[in-house]
Amino acid sequence: MNKKKVYILEDRGVLFIQGKDSREFLQNLITNDIDKVNEASSCFASLLTPQGKYLFDFLIIKHKNGYLLDCEKLQIENLYNQLDLYKLRSKVKILNLSNEFVVAALSNERFLEFEGAKNLPGFTIKYREDPIFLDPRKKELGARIVVNLEKLYLSLKKLDLSASNIDEYYKFSHEIGIAQKNTDQLKNKIFGIECNFEELNGIDFKKGCYVGQENTARIKLKNKLSKRLLPIQLIEGELKDEIIKYNDYEIGKVLIKNKFPFASIKYLNENFNEKNEFNCGNAKIKIIKPSWIK
Q: For the domain 5-175, what is the CATH code?
């Protein structure tokens, strides 16, 4: 990522959770440990079904007396409704601030120029009272700033950053193997742990119970992780089908079909070799296995 560029992620939404029970409320729901989140540290987490299947993923940032959740805007209303459903009698207030706050991404290199910045995933500082943090999933994704929309362009001017096409950012995210677009297409189709959330620092196996914890822990402890969400690259044709084959053997299934596609892949199967080309209907594809996946 170019240190002079910034990507205004208008396709991201922001929820604010505050109230006396906000810490306990989130701790009982999410896959990560909310105690990792403070003024100097942000985290990545997900909300799963009781069976451990994917529902939502988001970044969590400490803000004033509560927590900001940075989530794909396409999912923000559904996330709000799901959290509201779990709220019951908890003393928690959930606000959708997506029309007031915006998320922007900048390079790791530019982040490290800020006073007090450290090259640690999730490390968080303040810039003009707004949180700016190194992406807790992978440092290569750079940093994010969550800023009031009214202050956005003045902040970017002061930082000498030039707004660039967000497709550049999402193309890079796809290349390194992190799905951020059209993630609603994953719902109930894949286990959270199969989305590589452990490697992306999104699951804490030492914390207490959370929604979907039982199956997540079972897959981990019994070494039953045989499929993973991996990016795919279209070589020729169109992605009209879902089933991916190699020599007539089914090796996976396309789950996200947009311009940055991902598929659930049997990555340990003897028929999988990332150097091969695979068939998906009439299309030919390559499957990318990121270096951070063993």
A: 3.30.1360.120
